[in-house]
Every structure is written in structure tokens, then in C-alpha cells.
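Sequence in, structure out.
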Amino acid sequence: MKLKDYSILILMILTWSISYAQSYQVTGTVSDGTTGTAIENVTIYDKNAGQLAITDVNGKYRFETTQTELTLIWFSYEYVVLEESLTIDSDLIKDVQLQQLGEELTAIELTVRKEKLFQLERLKDVEGTSIYAGKKLKWFLLKILPQI
């Protein structure tokens, strides 16, 4: 056989193997655990395949995978993160209810959190060999110079 014959044979084998690979569809709805309303913009991440899906306005999501072992993570800022491992052998419908984040905070805790947030936005006065704080010369001119 010539090289051309081998390349056609290899191309046919590759086409057959790609078409033979099983593809599964994962769909579902994400809703609030207390009210039952659909949640939009929830990110669904498959750790094994590295795929992302985002819920629509009706809380529905859909993606395709060729893997049979899935580790799905449902994430939204207002809800508790949910992680679940699944083994699939056919198309899967996975409806999920997420629980809202809720904490009772006192005024002291809110003040501390506000201070921590402010510190994230503000540079430290001295960091290593760098100085980021400045002192006003106005105080020096008003207090020291008139006495001279």
C-alpha cells in the first residue's frame, strides 16, 4: 500500500472514533429553596471537564459532556455553594434548590466589616521601604513659623 492509502485509512478510523464517542446532555432548573422561585445567573461548573453553564431567566441550564463522572458546582453570590458528584450513563435532568445565605449580624460586626472593607481600598501608610502617607505643611506653617 502507498502512503496515500494509509492516510485515507487513518482518516476513516479517526472519523469513526469521533462519531462513536457518546455525548450526554445535562439539563435542569435551579430554584430558591425557601420560595421555590427560579434563580437566574447561577454558574454551574463541571470540575472534571472544566465546562461552564449559566442559568437563564427561568433558572434553566443545559450543557453537553462526554464524561460519565461529573462533579458539578452551583454558585451564586446570594446562595450557599452546592457541590455534587454524579455518575451518568444517559441524558440527565438535575433540578437543584439552593439555600439563601443568611446571617444575623450585630452593629459591632457590621462596623468591623466596614473597616476591613475600607482597609482593602486604602494603601498602608508605610509598606516596606515605600511611604504612601503625606503630612500637611499647613500645620507646620501655622504653629511653628509664627513663633520664630
